[in-house]
Design a protein that fits this description.
The chain has about 230 residues and is of the alpha/beta class. About 40% of the residues lie in helices and about 20% in strands.
């Protein structure tokens, strides 16, 4: 009886270390490429979402600016030296609105008025407004005199924007007119810089203008003179 030969198992192939290393490196490279691609896509999505959110929440000059109408002749521009050519001239009447769109009128005869023009980005204005607010809260403004602020020189690209937040944070208690994008109110009163002050008597005539911060004792004297005139 013939004896059957047992089949021998196939010989094992010994792995080639270099080939295996190349394959492992290629796998790692593919994984890194895939991960990098996913990361780029995810970053693009995040940037897109953030940019869309910022664009939607951004407050522009167009969102803030009011609609200002000027009734009367504009005042000549204020000069730092020499006599002010606007003294005793009739102040133009400004018809505008506050930050909420409520109507505001400045310069109309019948009441003595102090008007301060301020830009939210102006360092001197930022210094003066809290001082002025404290002066008002201490009861220094006579009953016979009205005080208005005009938020002017609107610029969304500069610090301390938007101006309505600034006035609210300071707690300014008086009426604020918001200028238009072209600073029509400021130009009508001959503004030469901020802060800018104008005093108008009860007849509607300009009795004083000044550019820059003023001491509160000087403002008190001026307000009392207006009240008595």
């Amino acid at each position: 009886m013939a004896t059957k030969k047992r089949s021998q198992p196939p010989a094992r192939k010994h792995p080639n270390p270099r080939a295996e290393a190349r394959k492992a490196a290629q796998r790692r490279q593919r994984i890194m490429f895939v991960a990098a691609g996913i990361g780029v896509v995810a970053l693009a999505v995040i940037i897109g979402v953030v940019s869309a959110g910022e664009g939607g929440d951004r407050i522009t000059v167009g969102d803030v600016a009011g609609d200002v109408d000027v009734d009367g002749e504009p005042l000549p521009q204020h000069a730092a030296n020499g006599a002010d050519p606007a003294l005793d001239q009739r102040a133009p009447v400004l018809n505008g609105e506050d930050f909420d769109g409520a109507p505001v009128t400045i310069g109309e005869p019948g009441r003595a008025q102090l008007v301060t023009f301020a830009a939210s980005w102006c360092p001197a204005c930022q210094e003066e407004l809290p001082i002025l607010t404290s002066w008002l809260e201490d009861g220094n403004l006579p009953d016979e005199v009205d005080l208005y602020a005009v938020a002017t020189s609107l610029d969304e690209g500069r610090p301390n924007w938007p101006p309505q937040d600034w006035f609210a944070e300071v707690g300014f208690p008086e009426t604020v007119m918001v200028d238009d994008a072209s600073s029509t109110a400021a130009q009508a009163y001959g503004l030469s810089g901020t802060p800018f002050w104008v005093a108008i008597d009860a007849d509607g005539d300009v009795v004083w203008r000044s550019s820059g911060m003023i001491p509160m004792d000087q403002l008190s004297a001026l307000a009392n003179d207006l009240a008595e005139s």
